[in-house]
Amino acid sequence: MFQSQLFAKIKKEPPREAETISHKLLTRADFIEQIASGIYVFLPLGLRVQNKIARIIREEMEGIKAQEMAMPALQPKSLWEKTGRWQTMDPPLFKLKDRHQKELALGSTHEEVVTYVVSRRIKTFKDLPLALFQIQNKFRNEIRATGGLLRTREFLMKDLYSFHEDQKDFEKYYEFIKKVYQKIFKRCGLPTLIVQASGSDFTEEYTHEFQVLTGAGEDTIIFCPRGHFAQNKEIAKAGTKCPVCGQTLKSDRGVEVANIFPLGDKYSKDLDAYFVDADGKKKPIIMGCYGIGLDRALATIVEIHHDKDGIIWPKEVAPFQVHLIKIENSRRVKETAAKLYYDLQKSGVEVLYDDRTNKTAGEKFVEADLIGLPLRLVVSEKTLKTNSVEAKKRNEKKIKLVKLSRIVKYVQ
Residue 333: which CATH number? Predict the structure, then answer.
């Protein structure tokens, strides 16, 4: 991508209402644009990061044989009435009527829809277990949207639903998904803590959250410093002893980037999702739900990976891997930078090429640090005196000169 053509306008100052680091930096670097409280446009840079996170999730989901589907955002009132959640969801549903005066809701979650669909297709134990997932926009009627992408009213979410013939099979899968989620977040550059929490509107059982410890978080986490124990403050108190090792439990703020729920047979019974077991008996399907908030994960990555100059994107989620900058506009510099751009692209490297002629070197460097791509390459008359390119990793101070003949291999 030529930066002269990129649909982005870097800002010197964040919006006045921005409080969190991620909100300030993502807005200044023009990854996102707010159009109303809790409602954001993902601009090209932001969408590229969102797509990278989605790609990681899809790879891991497909790796465990979960099948992707797409469910509608609009959901009929009748399904929510069957589960008793039409009036009880918190935050309340966004509700509307169509031109025939039929009542609908914008989906904040999809237990009702997926259970209805499965009930029409799963008939015997031979059809189980089953895992279905989607990556789709959700709508939450929050009373107050805060923290930029950390709490919004419309957001992209990955929800996985699993279906089992008994509790034992479900519990095995539930523990397996914990490990899969840890792998996903490791690839995204997020250090997560698995935290026990209450089930809210989804289940009466304890559930588990994947929390990232950061001051920007809204949740208070009580945890063992040795990693043996972690609970949400709703069900634990700081200062007590870890039940495993006896260490005094600590307290910190956290951002919930994912949660997993044992749903039992509630939705199966409410929506008639039964199967016939090996003995010919009719039984309700045992279910689990596993969600990841992509937009919140994106913002949390910025909360964890930044410095005073801007964002520092982990390689797998960066919008581009390389920020190529040409300094000066001599014919030799332009030709060398252009050739390097095409050589890198040809080798499969995603490059943002700052080909602009109306910006000083200092301005280009400031914007490059703000955008935060993993590697910066600079071509100038000075570097070409030694047939080299200046290379600097975003998370390091060190600058090195790499020969032009070796630069593609160096980047790869």
Answer: 3.40.50.800
Mark whether 150 and 251 lie in a shared domain: yes
Whether 288 maps to a domain, the answer reads: yes
> What is the count of structural domains for the chain?
2
Structure tokens at 109: 């979650």
Tens-place pLDDT, residues 40-76: 999 999 999 999 999 999 999 999 999 999 999 999 9
Overall average pLDDT of the 86-114 stretch: 97
Look at residue 35 and tell me if it is in a domain: no
Determine how many CB atoms are found less than 10 A away from the CB of residue 240.
11
Range of the domain at 75: 68-294
What is the spatial distance between Cα 340 and Cα 326, in angstroms, rounded to a whole number?
11
Non-local (6+) Cβ contacts of 405 within 8 A are 387
Tens digit of pLDDT for each residue in 329-384? 899 999 999 999 999 999 999 999 999 999 999 999 999 999 999 999 999 999 99
Same domain assignment for residues 286 and 350: no
21 backbone dihedrals φ, ψ, rounded to 5°: -60, -45
Q: How far is the CA of 152 from the CAs of 2, 257, 388, in angstroms?
A: 32, 13, 46
